[in-house]
Amino acid sequence: MKTYGILLIGCGHIGMEHLLDIYFRDNVRIVAVVDTDEDRARSAAKRCGSAWGTDYRPFLQDPRVEIVIIATYTDTHLPILKDCLAAGKHVLCEKPIARTYEDGEAFVQAVRDTDKKVLVAHILRHNGSYQKIRELIRGGAIGELRLVRMSQNHHTATKEEWNRHRRLLEDCSPTLDCGVHYYDIIHWITGGNITEVTGMGTTTQDDTVRENHNIVTFRTDCGCSGYYEVGWGESIRTCNLKEFIGTKGRITLNMRLGREYDVEEGDLITVYHSDTGVYESINCHAEYKDMYAQLATLIQMIEEDTDGDPTIEDVWRSFRVAYASAESIATGKTVYL
């Protein structure tokens, strides 16, 4: 088994999620971790016994580094990607790919132009519960999918949490930052395309640079409609609703931590069959953020010369929808894709 040398750039919340799920794997060796915060970089290095620094560029010259994980703020993704590809490294990059449409285009074009492998972290594609839901819907368990209800609100219970999310808001709206995941899920599950979006936004507190709560409705070219709600804030209640409604029933996902009973059984997928009135319960032991599954996908791309899952074209499609959603919120007009 080949061991891959990893450079992690960004040791904040999501960077540590990556690090703590991969550093002990047999085919992974953490060569170095980097963060502009010296204390944070040093602390992360102690976790995995690696080198550390505050500038990633010298580490790109290290031949032991084969894969770079970019876990920094959105506005830095494009320049870091370009440096990594110029140094001949494969890349796993956090979403969204950029804060502007032009930078998004440039990111996608850089991936198209390189012979190195790049995977964008659309983590839900690697989640076992969403994979099962896709299998059920594609298999006709609820007939023809007509309606999707998705809510992903987060209560920032501490000042530290709110400050982290407020920094995310400096780069882009919640519907762009998180929406790329869920618009991608719609494309991935239905096999269709989102063709129009209409959004609105609200500010629930004063110390934010933009609206911290978004609701977007959408339509697809395969007869499915729905809405996506996302908000972060000190007075917003956490809500994690995922419901898929078809002509013969519905599927509801209840994440493990949201279960009242049987938490040890994992996520709960409930299928209601409207023709018989029967409820079917499926326990799914899935990692909500399976960081190693993403890295394993990138390694498979490298070893088998595949395009990965999602492909860069899938990423671009969902980014365009997310960007259109943010545009609709800003203008108050429906955007057609």
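^ that was protein a. below is b, sequence first then the tokens
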Amino acid sequence: MFKKTLAFLLALSLILCVGCKSKEDKTEGGGDVVETEPLTVNSLTGLKDIPEDKLNARPVSVMVNNIRIAQDIQSGLADADIIYETEVEGGITRLMAVYKDISAVKQIGSVRSARYVYVDLSYGHNAIFIHSGSDPIYCRPRLASMDDIDIYTGYYGQKINNGKANDHTLYTFGDSVVSGIEKFKFSTTDDSNKTWLNFAEDGESVTLSGGTATELSVPFSSAYVTKFKYNSETGTYDRLIGNGTVQKDYTTGETVSVENVFVLLTSISDYADKEHRYVDLNGGDGYYFANGTYTFIKWKKGDANNSFTFTDVDGKELTVSAGSSWVCLADKQKCTPKYQ
């Protein structure tokens, strides 16, 4: 009840500020009130790529199956603004795709169950969280402790015959998710009025000082290595699957690519059940790749409601290319990214 009351009061305070202009206004007491410009870009990408009425839309995140045999039937990744990847049980990884405008996405999946770390990653974006079930020991209690974020996709998805086993056939759809959000009466606006990262201007090239990185592989485990290849024509990193094939969206045929790749090194260990994996989100060292170049970085997150912050090794805020991002959270004890 306290969280809901606090959320209401915060929302009310934001509503009362609607219509403020971007300038310093003198208060009656003589102090300065500094107010910010309204967003004109997608807050998750820094791009002018969404309709004006979606600029303050609340993001939506979706759990996506990443088991190797199902990668060729993945849908919706090419439309994602951010993709998170980290370990779950058994050495495999799972993805969470984040969208600023879920209504524009045709099909997403295949959808799988949630894990604890993804709840906190989603919460850091104030995103509505879409999944198909969750582990009952760690993740489910975490979801239950948070208000206004959780939709089980079983009610808003469909099994589609894609030639795979039944576990890999559940998809959801942008319009279905919108219907679910309306039914649950979730808040659909995000009035934070700031971008996720310190993005360069749309169209401005960011070249990094570490050197060239046109091919990149991130070993999460001995069995799961995520690979990218830089495409100089598009200025993006194409995701490679199988034996080095550029991945195409199962539904649209669009190339799965991102402008930014982050590799965040952290501590990953077993929970007490010796099956599910705990991923430390406090902070650490990492790498940032963009425009065929790289640099070393520092990162931190901390509390669930915090998003990530990235700096260079000297602590200066990182300037990031406008565009979509793939964020790999990998075990610092066994992950040494390879790039050339």
